[in-house]
Specification:
13 helices; 20% strand; 16 strands; alpha/beta; five-stranded mixed beta sheet
Length: 420
C-alpha cells in the first residue's frame, strides 16, 4: 500500500513537472535572440609623426569607443558598431594616396576623415571622389573645394580662421602701433595657402606683410632668424606651424638673434611656451598674441569640452589638448548620419546645411557654407569660431571667444564676397 501511494505521488509529480515545462516552453521560445550588430567602417588618415596627428588619433579612438559603448549608431532601425581603420600619412602625398586606395578598395570604408595636410588631402581626393567615398579633410588649401569633387566636405574652413586671427591679432593693438610684419610658414601647398590668407588678414588691418618660407624637416633656423631681423619689421608671426618642434626652434632662433618687438602665432603657442620661456626668458615674450587652444581652462568652459577632458584623462592619463581644434569631422559625420538616417554619402551631404545645427564641442556652433567663389554652389565648407589669448608673465592667458559669425564677417570683408 505504501509502495502504491509512493508510485501515485511520483506519477503526480512527473505529470506536474511536464505540464509546467510545456507551459514554460512557449515563453522560452518567445524570447527573441538579439541579432548581432553590423559594422560601419570609417577610415582615418593622419600624419602620426606629428603631435597633433597622434592626439587626434587618440581622440577619434576614444569617441568611437564611447559611441559603441552607448549602443553604436542606428540607421533605419539597424544598429552598427563603428570600426576605425587608421593609416599614417606621414605628410607624404604618395603615402596618403596609397592609404586612401587601401581604405577604398581593401577596407571598403564609406567615409574617411582626419587628414590635415593639404598636399596629402589633395592626392587622396583624386581617388576617393570617383569612388563616392565621403572625405572630411581639415586642411587649409581651398583647392579641396573643387567643382568636380562632389564627395569632399571640408570640416574646417581654416582659411577663414587664418584671415580672422591675423586680423584680430593686429587690430588688438592701438591704431598705428605696427605698420609692417613678416609672416613665416612652410614651403608647401598648405604653407603658401596659410601665409596667403594670413596676409589678407593683416592687410585688412592696414599692415604691410612680407612672406618667408622654410622647408619641412629644417632643423637650423638661424638663417631664417637672421633674415627676419635684417628686414627690421615691427612684428612677425609664425603661420600654420603644425609641428611644435618647428615652432619652438623658429621662435627661439628669432629671439636669440636679438628680436625685440611685437609677435603673434596662430597655433601651438600654449604647447611650446614653457620651453620657450626657458630658452629666451619671459620678458621678451610679454604681450605676444595667439590662438588659445585649451578651451577646458577658460572661464566658464564649454561643458562638453570639460567632459571630453575628464574622459580623456580617465582613458589616457595626462591631459593633452592638441586634438581639440582638429576633431570636428567625427561630430559632423555622426550628426549628419543621424539627420539623414542613412549611410548613403549623397543623403548625408544633403543633410549638411545651416538648419542642421552643426555643433563641435570645442568651437560650438559651426556654419556650413557654399563656395560660389570657387564654383561650388553646394554646402562643402564650414566656418567655425575659436579662442584668443595673450602672453602674460610667461603664460598664455585667455582673452576672448570668437564666434563663427564673426569669423565669417571678417572673411567676407577680406575676400569682398558673401558666403551666405
Amino acid at each position: 500500500m505504501f509502495t502504491q501511494q509512493r508510485k501515485r505521488l511520483l506519477l503526480v509529480a512527473i505529470t506536474v513537472h511536464l505540464v509546467l515545462s510545456l507551459i514554460a516552453v512557449p515563453f522560452v521560445i518567445a524570447q527573441p535572440t538579439p541579432l548581432p550588430k553590423k559594422v560601419l567602417k570609417i577610415g582615418v588618415t593622419l600624419p602620426l609623426v606629428d603631435m597633433i596627428g597622434a592626439e587626434v588619433k587618440k581622440a577619434f579612438e576614444m569617441l568611437c569607443a564611447q559611441q559603441n559603448e552607448a549602443g553604436g549608431i542606428t540607421v533605419k532601425g539597424e544598429r552598427y558598431n563603428i570600426e576605425l581603420v587608421t593609416y599614417d600619412s606621414k605628410f607624404n602625398p604618395e603615402i596618403g594616396r596609397a592609404a586612401a586606395e587601401k581604405l577604398v578598395h581593401q577596407d571598403k570604408v564609406k567615409f574617411i576623415m582626419g587628414e590635415y595636410s593639404s598636399i596629402v588631402a589633395l592626392a587622396m581626393a583624386e581617388l576617393t571622389n570617383p569612388a563616392k567615398v565621403l572625405f572630411f579633410p581639415t586642411v587649409v588649401s581651398d583647392r579641396v573645394i573643387n567643382p568636380a569633387w562632389n564627395y569632399v566636405f571640408r570640416a574646417k574652413a581654416n582659411t577663414f580662421w587664418v584671415i580672422a586671427t591675423h586680423y584680430l591679432a593686429t587690430k588688438s593693438l592701438p591704431p598705428g602701433t605696427i605698420k609692417t610684419a613678416v609672416l613665416i610658414g612652410y614651403d608647401d601647398e598648405g604653407g603658401h595657402t596659410t601665409v596667403g590668407e594670413a596676409t589678407k588678414g593683416v592687410e585688412l588691418a592696414g599692415i604691410k606683410a612680407t612672406k618667408l618660407f622654410f622647408k619641412r624637416g629644417t632643423t637650423d633656423f638661424g638663417p631664417l632668424a637672421t633674415k627676419v631681423v635684417s628686414l627690421q619689421p615691427e612684428s612677425f608671426c609664425t603661420v600654420g606651424t603644425t609641428s611644435a618642434a618647428d615652432h619652438l626652434r623658429i621662435m627661439t632662433s628669432i629671439f636669440q638673434s636679438g628680436w625685440k618687438g611685437y609677435w603673434w602665432a596662430d597655433m601651438q603657442t600654449e604647447t611650446i611656451l614653457p620651453d620657450l620661456v626657458k630658452a629666451v626668458g619671459k620678458e621678451v615674450l610679454e604681450g605676444g598674441f595667439g590662438e588659445f587652444n585649451d578651451a577646458s581652462i577658460i572661464p566658464s568652459p564649454p561643458p562638453d569640452v570639460v567632459q571630453f577632458r575628464k574622459d580623456y584623462e580617465r582613458r589616457y592619463g595626462k591631459w593633452h589638448y592638441e586634438s581639440l581644434p582638429w576633431d570636428p569631422a567625427w561630430y559632423f559625420l555622426m550628426q549628419a548620419i543621424k539627420a539623414a538616417d542613412s549611410l548613403d554619402p549623397d543623403d548625408i551631404l544633403a543633410a549638411i546645411k545651416p538648419d542642421l545645427g552643426l555643433y563641435w564641442p570645442w568651437a560650438g556652433k559651426c556654419i556650413p557654407i557654399k563656395r560660389r567663389d570657387l564654383g561650388v554652389d553646394k554646402y562643402r565648407d564650414c566656418v567655425y569660431g575659436s579662442y584668443l589669448g595673450v602672453v602674460r608673465d610667461g603664460k598664455m592667458v585667455f582673452t576672448e571667444k570668437v564666434r563663427a559669425e564673426t569669423v565669417l564677417e571678417i572673411a567676407e570683408k577680406a575676400n569682398r564676397t558673401s558666403y551666405r
